[in-house]
Amino acid sequence: MARTHTTIKLIEFKGTTLPVVAVTLHSLQADALAEAASTLFGADPFFDGDAALLELSQIGDAPEADWRLVQEVFRTHGLNVFGVRGGSEELRRSAAAAGLPAYAAVARSPQTLAAEEIAPTPPPPSEAPIAAPPPRVRTGPRVSPTIFVDRPLRSGQQVYARGGDLVMLAIVNAGAEVIADGSIHIYAPLRGRALAGASGAEDARILCTSFAAELVSVAGLYRTFDAGLPAELAGKAVHIRLTEKTSDDPERLIIEVLRNN
Q1: How far is CA 73 from the centre of its chain?
Q2: What's the CA gap between 200 and 218, in Å, rounded?
Q3: Per-residue model confidence as pLDDT tens digits over 150-184
Q4: Smallest Cα–Cα separation from 45: which of 194, 177, 218?
Q5: What is the DSSP letter of 71?
Q6: What range(s) does the Septum formation inhibitor MinC C-terminal domain occupy (predicted)?
Q7: What is the pTM of this model?
């Protein structure tokens, strides 16, 4: 019988879209970042090995960074940092020397995905780029999954609505954590931690009917209540959101009582 020779393809290129967490840094001091990340995410891994891009536009002229330690801070919480974006040319050069190439943002319409879509900085003309698939064009409103939870969360338990909103129909006890890439609605007391816009969606919000939280966060901006809750917020129905960022007024996290009239 004649032998059939089969050529095996060792490399194949296929277009794909992956979620990327954009992390805006205001410091490159590894110790300070580790403390802030622990306050925000706790001691256990928060993400599941997600890819992360460090946004350096808020750093300015910073001293040299130990990029290995910075990567380790986020690796501890389940994020794999693969590159940087923005910042000074010197900062991007030092990151590249540490194996973190610079990327440029893709221009997007106001109706954007929660996960950042990125494109690499174009290579020099001497390098022949590999053709990339055309970007996806959104032709209708975004439809994201909503997770409903109707059981109480005990201390140490966590619910994460990846890619969508979270609706809690039962109490979030102290030490428990609710997380969503979109908004969080809690129709019960919130006594633990609530983190909305976990992938960077600045239009995410948190609403709850009885406020007694340990920590709240929207798109990485957070507030803790170690010293106790303000009297005007304790036990009230509240609305938590980010203010609009302007050239004169930086983005702020605000908590306001919900009015029914």
Answers
A1: 15
A2: 8
A3: 999 998 889 999 889 999 999 999 999 999 999 99
A4: 177
A5: H
A6: 148-244
A7: 0.54
Looking at the domain covering 146-257, what would its CATH class be? mainly beta
If 0-12 CB within 10 Å is exposed, 13-18 middle and 19+ buried, where does residue 82 land? middle
Phi then psi for residue 89, to 5 deg, are -60, -40
Q: By C-alpha distance, which of 155, 142, 95 is closest to 121?
A: 95
Q: Which of 106, 110, 114, 105 is nearest to 162 (CA)?
A: 114
| Maximum C-alpha span of the chain | 88
8 A C-beta contact, residue 184 and residue 178? yes
Residue 225 phi/psi, 5-degree rounding, is: -130, 45
CATH hierarchy code of domain 20-120: 3.30.70.260
| 225 three-state secondary structure | coil
What is the rounded distance in angstroms from the CA atom of residue 234 to the CA atom of residue 230? 6
**Run of H or E including 196:** strand 193-196
Q: Sketch the domain layout of the chain as residue ranges.
A: 20-120, 146-257
Pair of tokens at residue 17:
């879209």
Q: What whole-number distance in Å separates Cα of residue 133 and Cα of residue 117?
A: 13
- Other Cβ atoms within 10 Å of 12 Cβ, number: 5
